[in-house]
Design a protein that fits this description.
Strand order of the largest sheet: 1-2-3-6-5-4
CATH class of the largest domain: Mainly Beta
Shape: elongated
Helix content: 10-25%
Largest sheet: 6 strands, antiparallel, barrel
CATH superfamily of the largest domain: Trypsin-like serine proteases
Strand content: 35-45%
Order of helices and strands: HHHEEEHEEEEEEEEEH
CATH architecture of the largest domain: Beta Barrel
CATH topology of the largest domain: Thrombin, subunit H
Mean pLDDT: 81
Length: 257
């Protein structure tokens, strides 16, 4: 009787430990790798709702052909409206998005409206809640709720290693949400014209990726894509992201927490 009871208790302890490991790895607490849960397609599906495309509504004057009641055609100056891609953003908390300051700089200075687009193509107006131009970080708040999901944050960012696989998510060239895979090429990179340290990656990044996400192979946020160093302005494998611990620190400072 005692042996049977001891066996049942041991079995529950083992099952509980295994369950704990599974749940822990879902939230990035352990290094346990679960093939089905952490295959790349699953990771991308789970992280898609955590990255947005950012657009500006711009107005300008242009010529447009019109006809009068007699059928005579003529050109007339009219005010036109269009959507222009600015960059990307990451969802840090419910309805709160972090992006680069340079992504929304012109919209702020020219009092233009910003549009946030989620992974399903749904759009909503956004407002600038604050920014830190030195850190190149801005915080946006959406006007109406849409299907967005805050990122799981990599807690041990100081333990990131060169060679780790990473994925960049953003809106390159305004084409829509895109993914590119690479590795961590270097850490603690510094620049004379920029504040703080940066994560270097060879994951393909192009104009429009700015403000987007750099994640690890478990879907945890490592940083916010910030800058490309190249002679052409496009990807040459020298791409950099602001580490997530710096992002969260500036995010809280902007919101006065």
């Amino acid at each position: 009787m005692f042996k049977k009871k001891y066996f049942v208790i041991s079995l529950w302890v083992i099952l509980g430990s295994i369950s704990g490991l599974f749940f822990s790895t879902f939230y990035g607490k352990t290094d346990l790798y679960i093939p089905v849960y952490h295959n790349i397609s699953n990771v991308l599906e789970r992280t898609s709702p955590s990255v947005v495309n950012i657009w500006t509504i711009k107005k300008w004057k242009g010529w447009q052909e019109q006809s009068n009641e007699f059928g005579f055609k003529f050109n007339m100056r009219v005010v036109k409206t269009g959507f222009f891609p600015n960059g990307s953003g990451v969802v840090i908390e419910k309805d709160l998005i972090v992006t680069n300051y340079h992504v929304i700089k012109d919209a702020f200075s020219q009092n233009q409206q910003l549009i946030v687009e989620n992974h399903t193509g749904k759009t909503v107006l956004a407002q600038i809640l604050g920014f830190d131009s030195d850190a190149d970080i801005a915080v946006l708040g959406i006007i109406e709720p849409i299907n967005l999901k805050p990122f799981n944050i990599r807690k041990n960012i100081d333990q990131i290693q060169v060679g780790e696989p990473v994925i960049a998510i953003g809106n390159p060239q305004g084409l829509g949400q895109s993914f590119s895979k690479g590795i961590v090429s270097a850490i603690n990179r510094k620049f004379k014209d920029k504040k703080g340290n940066f994560i270097q990656t060879d994951a393909s990044i192009n104009p429009g990726n700015s403000g987007g996400a750099l994640i690890d192979d478990k879907g945890r946020l490592l940083g916010v894509v910030n800058v490309i160093r190249s002679t052409s302005g496009g990807n040459q494998g020298l791409n950099f992201a602001i580490p997530v611990d710096t992002v969260i620190e500036v995010f809280n400072s902007i919101l006065d927490r």
